[in-house]
Amino acid sequence: MPSAKADDGYRLWLRYELVNNSTLLSNYRNAVTSVYLPGTSPSLLAAKDELQMGLEGLLGKKVSFQNTLANAQLVVGTPASSSQIAALPLSNQLSKAGDEGFVIVSTTRSQKKIIAIAANTDIGVLYGVFHFLRLMQTQQNIQHLAVTSAPKTKYRLIDHWDNLNRTVERGYAGFSIWNWHTLPRYIDQRYIDYARANASIGINGVVVTNVNANALILTKEYLEKVAALANVFRPYGIKIYLTGRFSAPIEIGKLKTADPLNAEVRQWWKNKIDEIYTNIPDFGGFLIKANSEGQPGPQDYKRTHADGANMFAEALAPHKGIVMWRAFVYSNESPEDRLKQAYAEFKPLDGKFNNNVAIQVKNGPLDFQPREPFSPLFGAMPKTPLFIEYQLTQEYLGFSTHLVFMAPLFKEVLNADTYEKGKGSTVAKVLDGSLDGQALTGMAGVANIGNDINWTGHPFGQANWYTLGRLAWDHQLSSAQIANEWVRQTFGNSKPLVDTVEKMMLSSREAMVNYMTPLGLHHIMGYGHHYGPAPWFDKASRADWNPVYFHKADSIGIGFDRTANGTNYLSQYAPEVRKQFEDINTCPEEYLLWFHHVSWKHTMKSGRNLWEELCYRYYAGVDSVRVMQKEWNSLEKLVDKQRFNQVKMLLAVQEKEAVWWRNSCLLYFQTFSKMPIPPSYEKPDQTLEYYKNLNFPFAPGNGR
């Protein structure tokens, strides 16, 4: 049965509710009667606090912390902090754990049965503690533990698009959690809980400011505020990063230029970065958006991205900081297919970046669409470290009112084969460095976090934050495993509950693709705010902001020809990938309209023609949401009332908006196909003109 008390979602997946299986509770209480955790470093004290909170909640009793070894004890530490850990034969496992990993083993010491959580560093200990508590929250057997875990990527980051005025660009969960006005003297408990949540899933870096950067963050007043946040994050193994405004030397430095090859400019950045490290000794570095969507950059001075990135890199290198230089670039002046521009600008620069520069590449070549092929930059720059950038905030995925579990989207990209070095050259191997021998490896996600009480607006938005951390730590985890973990920790371990919610989550992304952009359609959302459908829009200030640019529907068919007969975008992929996609008969249907302009009468694998298949997919998407509604309603007695009602209402919004997407898109595309919607389907309840006239001047997320 659900807890009698309401749950507002604030605790995320760290709820530490009493284990409700009496046999398992007894086993846990017998296995952990006390804790031995010597050491007083900030990270070890954080581990101690977490264990005290977690064990007392899960076991329903106080757990003592002792100074001597005892039977049925949890023994925690590093060989340096704990003589008991040092005495255990764990050198082989610890060598595999590295700097951030951990070892958890059931063993015997001085004829006493213990569970050891060991690591080489204090932060590794904290990660091990969170893993152990996860095992208990998900009701796993802890009698014969033998866990060795180490992260597969070195930099695991959350990127906040938060502005200094507390608006959040593409944010749908309230205002920014950073209250710059009250920092540095007032430390909100939320900052600490944010750090705990990130550490629990292995996130070790936070970019606190928007990529559309404001140079004020680099002033003395704001650096003191950033330093206060860094002090909160440090015990949890989290480094703080900032976004760098390329024109800052002009805007706050009073220089006349920001040319990256100008000696005065380079010295200004060196001095500024030295100042940052004086305030924040473990500052992580910069995330830079340059020469994209109006942002200043090196091309303003006829310099390359490498010139700009290396200027920052040289100033950061003595401090062991890094530069993450975003590859999201496209120019209004270029008539080229927008998707080709990032590759065209960055591929020639492979090997020309300093070794503390990583190019941060969106998962797809366009802009966080419901489905995109992997970016061709993955596999095209073997001499340059590449980070992947996902978007947790649902800018194109229904904002915070649609239940969309993103693990299948993330995994689809990670498992994609670039063929850079033959079959098996997956994007995941590019990212973890194993394909090209890169040491600088990383994964980032644009935050979906705000000051809503549950952090993410939609309760299920928390699952996408959780997913990012878990996949950045171990990209081999399956979507099902991540969903299972999250549901058990967030809602409970009842089998009907877990099975039903996991099923909903795993089907949700494909449902959303079907009711928004099936068969490879893309970027047909409302202009500017990206709320709802607007495939007819053609009034943008630049062609490639118009939905009509991307779907190219006409009387013959629909879709964007990116083969050799069209823009030849496919030439940017390896021959094996290109060969599959360029043939309309071998191109996976989920990408068909991404790469081909296809006749309305083209026969699909189902036997339906393209128009009929489009109808089928749009209606299937709506049907899937209605199934999710029924599944959720069946859980009323298994979920606390507050969250049950919240999700129920949000699913009703999602169903209404899915119908809106379906009806408006099919009615619009029907003006080109001149073919009927099959009579067996429910008829659209409004006209195309009704949908075209809808207007949303205050749709959220456009905060700048």
Automatic annotation (TrEMBL):
Listed InterPro entries: A-glucoronidase_C_sf, GH, Glyco_hydro_67_aGlcAse, Glyco_hydro_67_aGlcAse_N, Glyco_hydro_67_C, Glyco_hydro_67_cat, Hex-like_dom2
GO cellular component: extracellular region
Domain Glycosyl hydrolase family 67 catalytic: 136-455
The entry's keywords: Carbohydrate metabolism, Glycosidase, Hydrolase, Polysaccharide degradation, Xylan degradation
Protein origin, superkingdom: Bacteria
One term of GO molecular function: alpha-glucuronidase activity
Limits of the Alpha glucuronidase N-terminal domain: 12-132
GO BP terms in the entry: xylan catabolic process
Enzyme class: hydrolase
EC number(s) from the headed UniProt entry: 3.2.1.131
Record: active site: 293 (proton donor), 367 (proton acceptor), 395 (proton acceptor)
Start and end residues of each Glycosyl hydrolase family 67 C-terminal domain: 456-679
Reactions listed under catalytic activity: Hydrolysis of (1->2)-alpha-D-(4-O-methyl)glucuronosyl links in the main chain of hardwood xylans
SUPFAM superfamilies: (Trans)glycosidases (SSF51445), beta-N-acetylhexosaminidase-like domain (SSF55545)
Protein family according to the UniProt entry: Belongs to the glycosyl hydrolase 67 family.
Subunit structure: Homodimer.
Protein name, as recorded: Xylan alpha-1,2-glucuronidase
Biological source species: Segetibacter aerophilus
Gene name in the database record: aguA
